[in-house]
Every structure is written in C-alpha cells, then in structure tokens.
C-alpha cells in the first residue's frame, strides 16, 4: 500500500530503522525536525522534496543512503525504472534494482515518482527496430507490466518523456513518432490510466519552465489529454544554467494549474562553468531558492525533485563539458549554499512555512469592482520579490492595477502582469490567463524589484479597476 503524507509524517516523528532487505543492508536513522532538514520542512508544507537516486550508491555507500533517508520524502529512480533497465530484451523483465529502490522508499516512509514509461532514449534497440502494430503492442505490454507491478506503491509516473523538440515547438522526430504518429502519446496515457487508475500521470519535458514555443506545444498536448481525463500533471525538468531561472516561470506554471493540473519540478539542477567560485555558488543558491519558492507558493505544485545527491555523481559534466557542480551537496556530502537556500525557501529554521515575511497594506475599500494588495515576499539588499493579489467584488473579465513607488524601487521583471511596469508609476493589467475572476474570488501576480542597497522595500497602496 502506498504510504500517504500522514503516514510519512508519523515516520518522521520517531526513529526509523531502514531495513533495506532488498539491498542486503540495515541502517538506523534518526530523522531530524522540520527546522533542520529538507524533508521536515517539505512535509510541513505538504509537498514533496525528492531526489533521483542511484541503486549502486544506495547499495554501497552508507553515508549516501543515510542522507537520502534523512533529507528527502520522495524518490525517483535515476535509471532503474527506464525501459533498458527493466526490459532489456523482449519479454525478459528484470526488476532487481527498481524493487530495491521502491522497498527502500517504503522502509523510510517515502513516496516514489516513477520515471519513465515511454522515452526516445534508453530504450532497447529491439524496441526501436519495431514499427506499426508491433511497436504499439510492445509499448502497451511494457506499460502494463511495469505499472501493474508497482500499482499502489508508486504515487505518480512520467508516462511520456521529452516528446517535443527543441525548435519551434514541433513534435520530436523520434522512432515513436515515425512508427506510430502523435497518437502514441494518447495510447500511452490510456494504457497507464487503465493499468494503475490511482497513480498520478505526468507528461515530462525540459526547457519548458518559461513561456516559449516548446511549453506552448506541451500546453496544447496537455489540453487534449485533460479533455480525455488522462492527465494529472506536468513535469518541468528544470535543468537550468546558472542565473537563468525564467522570469515568467511562475506564470507559466500557473497556466497549467489553471487547466486543473498539478505541476512538479522533476529533475532540478543548476549547472555552473567549473571551477565554480564563491559568487557563482551564491548565485546558484539564489536560483535554487527561487525555484523552490515558486513551488512552495503554488498550491498545486506537488513538489521539487533534485536530479541527484552530490555533484560528482551528476550527469551534467558528461553531457555539458566544462560545466558541473549542479547539485545541493559536495562530493563529500557536505551541504552547499544551495542546500541552505532550498531549506529556507521551504520554511526550514522557522515555522514550517516559506521563509517570506509579507508586509501587506490594509485592503482598499471593497465597494469598487476589484481591490488589490501587495506584499513583500523575499527582500534582499538591492531588491525584493513581491506578491500581488486581486480580489473580485464583481465578475471580472479583466483588471488593471496602478500604484506609484515612493522611492527608488523599480520592477525588473514580472509574471502574470503586463503593461507599463518599469517606471515610478506602474500601470499593469492581467495576462491572458488570469483576467477572468468570479465575484468573491482572487487571482495573483508577482514581480521582482531593484532598490537602493539596504533600503526597506516599501508597500504602496494599489488601485484596482475592472477592464
């Protein structure tokens, strides 16, 4: 039976013995409180903080194993559940590694996010050489076999992975597309839904964190799957380059939430040109913090999974020569600045809520068609992140907010808001997806500012006008 969050919290409250029988190993672990571990902080928010794990390291490295059990409440098999690992030849399945990871998760009160059924890489050549009915039959049989084996033990699955190309939002020219046409995506989800009706089903891809042609295509695919009742969530891999968290990431995730979907950061890492200096490691920490804050602030973000534990085991240097140091832990498993940033973003060291200290103006009178407030979420020396809320006092089809900064504050980038934003007087309107608001309901927007070094981030009074 799948361990739910209530069960996982009960596990955290005491001492857990990691009886990893499938690995032939035993370990006694004391889980720390929400104030000191990623796991405790994430459970306080009812979200996942996950990690991609290596079977070999779980088997052979006790320090790695202990850290995985202590710091994370969700596991993804980095490779052990992919097709080449589970069915290397037609009909010959091997689940030794995948079973061991699922057993480890259950022994430690962790959920499992399954990765992945259908992908154009790490799929055996015997599958790639098929076409037509034979290819579709192989796909269906593979999904059924793997999903049936872990039914009730795996909480969610990446059903299809990386189906859109990197250029202009076209479909990826994979052997799947050439052999079956775009319909293979629907067939994969139909099969997974029937095989494990209680698991959440995700479509997963990279470079879709911002609003671009690729994420637009994923959005279109998602709409079609939602209309058929086949899709529960979208996975955003977030293999990021230092300093390049998209400014519109939160707004982009929100538009998928508005489809009724969950969103999940599934494979987070932030790569740096090596060797990394202290300033770059701090920028990396800021990037991790921003992504974790976005998920913490979105009710329908199910969690964040970091793609690996320690820098030396990451896939990054092998694929991007000259880049590395992308994860939360050094090779000796000591914590990097990015670890502390994620912990703080999830509420570590405090009450279990995100480490934001909203300073909100008194609401304007409620007699107008809409009202709006601003709050400071994350201030720093030369800037701050703000959250804005628009409340509808009548049914709205659009809205405009206006305010004037009293000092040097200026918006540097914004999400879910557009218009004349960069001057002392701000006039911003809704984006295409957050203008319709029913009476009594709210919608949100956000932005970052620059300000004088060390000055207080002010909170001006906002005027809201229906469109």
Automatic annotation (TrEMBL):
Broad EC category: hydrolase
Secretion signal span: 1-34
InterPro entries: CBD2 (IPR001919), CBM2/CBM3_carb-bd_dom_sf (IPR008965), CBM2_carb-bd_dom_sf (IPR012291), GH (IPR017853), GH10 (IPR044846), GH10_AS (IPR031158), GH10_dom (IPR001000)
Domain CBM2: 363-467
SMART domains in alphabetical order: CBD_II, Glyco_10
Region Disordered: start-end pairs: 348-368
E.C. number(s) listed in UniProt: 3.2.1.8
Reaction catalyzed: Endohydrolysis of (1->4)-beta-D-xylosidic linkages in xylans
Transmembrane segments: none
Gene3D superfamilies in UniProt: 2.60.40.290, Glycosidases
Active site feature: 267
The UniProt record lists the keyword Metal-binding: no
Signal among keywords: yes
UniProt-listed Pfam families: CBM_2, Glyco_hydro_10
Location of the GH10 domain: 32-345
Keywords tagged on the record: Carbohydrate metabolism, Glycosidase, Hydrolase, Polysaccharide degradation, Signal, Xylan degradation
Family, per entry: Belongs to the glycosyl hydrolase 10 (cellulase F) family.
Protein name as annotated: Beta-xylanase
Organism: Glycomyces endophyticus
């Amino acid at each position: 039976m799948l361990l739910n969050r209530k069960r996982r919290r009960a596990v955290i409250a005491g001492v857990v013995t990691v009886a990893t029988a499938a690995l032939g190993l035993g370990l006694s672990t004391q889980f720390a409180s929400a104030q000191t571990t990623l796991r405790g902080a994430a459970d306080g928010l009812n979200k996942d903080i996950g990690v991609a794990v290596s079977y070999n390291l779980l088997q052979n490295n006790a320090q790695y194993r202990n850290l995985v059990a202590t710091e994370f409440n969700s596991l993804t098999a980095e490779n052990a559940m992919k097709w080449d690992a589970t069915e290397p030849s037609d009909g010959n399945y091997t689940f030794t590694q995948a079973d061991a990871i699922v057993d480890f998760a259950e022994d430690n009160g962790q959920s499992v996010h399954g990765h992945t059924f259908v992908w154009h890489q790490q799929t055996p050549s015997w599958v790639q050489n098929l076409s037509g009915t034979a290819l579709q039959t192989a796909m269906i049989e593979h999904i059924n076999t793997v999903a049936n084996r872990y039914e009730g033990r795996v909480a969610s699955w990446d059903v299809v992975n990386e189906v859109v190309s990197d250029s202009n939002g076209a479909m990826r020219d994979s052997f799947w597309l050439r052999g079956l046409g775009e319909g293979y995506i629907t067939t994969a989800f139909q099969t997974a839904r029937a095989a494990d009706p209680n698991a959440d089903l995700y479509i997963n891809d990279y470079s879709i964190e911002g609003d671009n042609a690729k994420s637009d295509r994923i959005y279109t695919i998602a709409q079609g799957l939602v209309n058929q009742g086949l899709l529960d969530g979208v996975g955003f891999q977030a293999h990021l380059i230092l300093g390049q968290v998209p400014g519109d990431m939160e707004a982009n995730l929100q538009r998928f939430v508005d489809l009724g979907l969950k969103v999940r950061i599934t494979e987070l890492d932030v790569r740096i040109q090596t060797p990394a200096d202290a300033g770059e490691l701090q920028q990396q920490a800021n990037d991790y913090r921003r992504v974790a804050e976005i998920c913490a602030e979105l009710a329908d973000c199910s969690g964040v999974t970091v793609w690996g534990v320690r820098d030396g085991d990451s896939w990054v240097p092998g694929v991007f020569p000259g880049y590395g140091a992308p994860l939360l832990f050094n090779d000796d498993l000591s914590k990097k600045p990015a670890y502390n940033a994620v912990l703080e973003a999830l509420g570590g060291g405090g009450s279990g809520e995100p480490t934001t200290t909203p300073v909100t103006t008194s609401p304007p009178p409620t007699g107008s068609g809409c009202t709006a407030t601003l709050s400071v979420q994350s201030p720093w020396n030369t800037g701050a992140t703000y959250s804005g809320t628009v409340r509808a006092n009548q049914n709205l089809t659009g809205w405009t907010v206006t305010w004037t900064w009293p000092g040097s504050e200026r918006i540097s980038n914004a999400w879910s808001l557009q218009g004349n934003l960069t001057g002392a007087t701000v006039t911003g309107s809704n984006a295409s997806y957050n203008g319709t608001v029913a009476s009594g309901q709210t919608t949100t927007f956000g932005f970052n500012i620059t300000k004088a070094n060390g000055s207080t981030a002010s909170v001006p009074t906002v005027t809201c006008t229906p469109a």
